[in-house]
Each structure stands twice: as structure tokens, then as C-alpha cells.
Amino acid sequence: MNLENSVILITGASSGIGKETAKKLAAHGAKVVLMARSEDILNELKTSIENDGGQASVVTGDVTKMEDFKKVVSKTVSTFGNLNALINNAGLMPLSFVEKLKTDEWEKMVDVNIKGVLNGVAAVLPQLKANKGGYIINISSMAAHRYFPGGAIYCATKAAVKMLSEGLRQELTPKYGINVTSIEPGAVATNLTDTITDEDIKEKLQAMLEMQTLESEDIANAIYYTLTQPDRVNINDVYIMPSEQQ
Ligand code: NDP
CATH number for the domain including 197? Predict the structure, then answer.
């Protein structure tokens, strides 16, 4: 994909990986559409991108609501004239041990991490099909490959995203030229652990905090690499770990 003037919708753009990705892609000429719920932060990011000479627009929305996604897509097309790629990045990780039965948190993870991704796919697909090409990048995780303490439900959601990506690739890439990639990072220094309420998990995470983790820009670089391959190339998975993580 030629990033210059392409229009890229990024969910979860108010923090961490989404925010760095928006900055990176805008710096390479993409028009980025910033979606999340935190309007003030998104507006600050838009201003900072514009001050650096890039183009961005803000559309607040909740990925669990299909109507929000439809609104985002129609505003994107009216603002920038098209939509070429979706980065399904919004996600939550309230880890807990299953026996604590934090079922509200299980439900939220399923809603945001799986249904949010499906909503994104459903919202952008008509436009990408009409364009006869484009890109869908789903942010899965190392958690799709292996269980870690308190991660039974989180890992299940990320495994679902990885498998969904493969299904989308097989159905959409040969037929419509819509490339699909699953990005699977290990630990990245972001706000992702803020939603953890299980005190036993917080204790276990201490060890991880002592390790040198990845930075959000490392994942933004992987996304940039993925998007800028020639059309004949589909990067199926990018499994990327901190050097210090076992
Ligand atoms: P952050 O917590 O820093 O960012 C999460 C983003 O998701 C925020 O912008 C938040 O915005 C958004 N978000 C959450 N819920 C919703 C919602 N219902 N609707 C719209 N946006 C929402 O975490 P990361 O940057 O680390 O996470 C990004 C992705 O990367 C996630 O899918 C995560 O699972 C994955 N990942 C992260 C790893 C890590 O170690 N950090 C490792 C592997 C994968 P707002 O609250 O404003 O709506």
C-alpha cells in the first residue's frame, strides 16, 4: 500500500500502540482517523499530528457499538473521500484467575476484544470491497500462542482474533485484494494493565515490570512494515517479543 494519501482508521488511538501507530502512519503521509472514547486525548493527538505536518480526524466511538462504527466509516468517507485500511487495535486486559468469577470483566473482554473487532470488519468491508483492495490489521497478542497466569479469558479472546484474521485472509485476500494481518506482540509498555482488579495478578505482574518490555513504537514499526509491502505480499502474522521475555 502506498501510504501517501491513504485513509487509515485506527481504533484505540487514544493510548499506547494505537496512538504511536497514528503518529507513525501520519508522518508517512497517511490520513489517519482516530477512534476511541476519550475525545479530549484524541483531539490533542490530532493537533500534535497536524503540527507535525500530518492529517488526522477524530471520531469518538465505542467499538462494541456497531452504530458507532458505521458513523465513523461514513464520517471518514465524507471527510477524506475514502477509507483504505482498518487497524483493529482497541482492547482490554483485566486479567484474573477464573475461580474469582469476575464474569463482568470476562464479558467486557469478549465485547471489546472479539465483538469490537468483528464490528470493525463489518463496518469497513463494503468500502474496501468497493475499492477492490485495502487492509485489515488486527492486534492479537502473544496471548494467542500461550496461556499466562490470569489470562484464560484474555488469551481466548486473542486466539479468536488470530484465527479470525486467518479466516478473513482466506476469504477476502484472493477474491478482493484486501490484505489481512494479525499482529501478536509480547509485553509492551502501555496502560493495558490498568484494568486489572485481581490483586493476586498485580503481584505476579511485578516480575514483568522489571523486564525491558517493547515500546509502542516497536509495534507501530511492525504495522508500518506490514502496510508498505507490495500488493502481492500478505504478511499473515507478526509475532514480536521483547528480547528479555521468555
Ligand atoms: P492501552 O490500554 O494503552 O490502549 C487501549 C486503547 O483501547 C485505548 O485507546 C482505549 O481508548 C481503547 N478502547 C478500550 N475500550 C474501547 C472501546 N470500548 N471502544 C473504543 N476504544 C476502546 O493498551 P495497548 O495500547 O497496550 O493495547 C492496544 C492493543 O494491543 C489491545 O488490543 C491489546 O490487547 C493489544 N496488546 C497489547 C500488549 C501490551 O503488552 N500492551 C501486548 C499484546 C497485545 P478509550 O479508553 O479512550 O476508549
Answer: 3.40.50.720
